[in-house]
């Protein structure tokens, strides 16, 4: 009696429902903590420091940035040979990124939410795992390409407390460019596959590899532009220079595995932007940036996930009744 009962509890359907409910509760918990730490008076004081046209432009770019993120999933699906309509994978992409931007470990959370959505579309768990891994590689390759161009073309320097034998990051930029070119050459010339546990893995084709660079570079450019527009206009701080500093902060946040790089990005930005902007102005901009790029999308994603779970439950009830 015990084994059949346990089997009924741990069915695929119940596990998927549990995943969805758990993620929904996690989103509500994160949002509650964010709101408790969020002071409306402080926020309005910070917003007054930002020119209206820059504030509105930054807000308008946010949905564009999340639209760009959907192409991570698109490229991965092309690589896997899976065809899905845009509205299907866009939903999985938005929920995956909105959750992973706020909840750690980001890769696990992003993969779990994608598995919840894609499994309902008939995509296997192994393919979802490949999709998540491919998207992580896409981000890394795009960072190398964009970082290579920006670091090689600017003279941004690391803070004094970081021991670095060179005066700036230009040599790192050229190394990044070299690695990007090597990746493209391998994608063009190497068509061999690697067998692992009965599954085959291969490099993407050259068009897909080039798409990875374009999508990831556009993603990083859009997200950095949102924050740049929220800073007070300073002639000495050009966008390419800011982008170089942002990329350093971005990777610091990614490597830390802190949700949204909370505290890490702020520290790096304050240290590296201090010659141009006062610390309180930097933190003000980051506060609004987090509202636009992290909190509001997570609130929207939690709502969409709740709707998805309700619809899935109704669909299963109809199946059971028929």
What tags apply to this protein structure?
322 residues, mainly alpha, two-stranded antiparallel sheet, 12 helices, 2% strand, flat
Summed up:
Helix content is 75%, strand content 2%. The protein contains twelve helices and two strands, in the order H-H-H-H-H-H-H-H-E-E-H-H-H-H. The protein has a two-stranded antiparallel sheet.
Characterize the structure shown.
By secondary structure, this protein is an all-alpha fold. The chain has one domain. Helices cover 75% and strands 2% of the residues. The chain contains 12 helices and 2 strands. The protein has helices spanning 2-9, 12-36, 40-47, 52-80, 86-100, 106-119, 125-153, 170-189, 206-229, 239-256, 264-273, 279-321; strands at 193-196, 199-202. It has a two-stranded antiparallel ribbon.
Query: What is the approximate shape?
Result: flat
N-to-C order of helices and strands:
HHHHHHHHEEHHHH
What low-confidence regions span 5 or more consecutive residues with pLDDT below 50? 5-14
Radius of gyration from CA coordinates: 22 Å
Structural class of the helices, strands and pairings?
mainly alpha
Distance between the termini: 27 Å
Total DSSP E strands: 2
- What is the mean predicted local confidence, pLDDT? 79
State the major sheet. Answer: 2 strands, antiparallel
| Amount of beta strand | under 5%
Count the DSSP helices: 12
Give the fraction of residues assigned to helices. over 70%
What is the count of distinct domains?
1
Strand order of the largest sheet: 1-2
């Amino acid at each position: 009696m015990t084994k059949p009962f346990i089997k009924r509890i741990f069915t695929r359907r119940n596990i998927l429902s549990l995943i969805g409910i758990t993620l929904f509760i996690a989103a509500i918990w994160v949002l509650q903590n964010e709101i408790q730490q969020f002071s409306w008076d402080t926020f309005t004081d910070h917003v007054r420091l930002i020119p209206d046209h820059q504030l509105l432009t930054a807000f308008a770019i946010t949905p564009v940035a999340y639209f760009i993120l959907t192409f991570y999933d698109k490229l991965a699906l092309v690589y896997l040979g899976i065809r899905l309509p845009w509205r299907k994978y866009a939903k999985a992409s938005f929920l995956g990124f909105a959750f992973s931007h706020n909840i750690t470990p980001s890769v696990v959370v992003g993969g779990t939410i994608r598995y919840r959505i894609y499994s309902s579309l008939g995509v296997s768990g192994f393919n979802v795992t490949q999709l998540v891994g491919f998207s992580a590689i896409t981000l890394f390759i795009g960072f190398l390409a964009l970082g290579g161009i920006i670091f090689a073309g600017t003279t941004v320097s690391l803070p004094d407390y970081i021991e670095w034998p060179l005066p700036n990051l230009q040599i790192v930029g050229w190394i990044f460019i070299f690695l990007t070119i090597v990746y493209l050459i391998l994608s063009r010339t190497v068509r061999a596959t690697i067998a692992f546990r009965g599954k085959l893995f291969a490099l993407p084709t050259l068009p897909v590899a080039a798409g990875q660079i374009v999508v990831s570079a556009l993603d990083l450019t859009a997200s950095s532009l949102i924050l740049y527009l929220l800073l007070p206009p300073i002639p000495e701080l050009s966008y390419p220079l800011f982008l170089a500093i942002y990329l350093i902060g971005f990777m610091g946040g990614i490597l830390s595995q802190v949700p949204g790089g909370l505290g890490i990005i702020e520290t790096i930005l304050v240290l590296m932007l201090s010659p141009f902007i006062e610390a309180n102005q930097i933190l003000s901009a980051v506060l609004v940036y987090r509202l636009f790029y992290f909190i509001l999308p997570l609130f929207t994603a939690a709502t969409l996930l709740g709707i998805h779970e309700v619809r899935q439950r109704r669909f299963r009830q109809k199946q059971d009744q028929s």
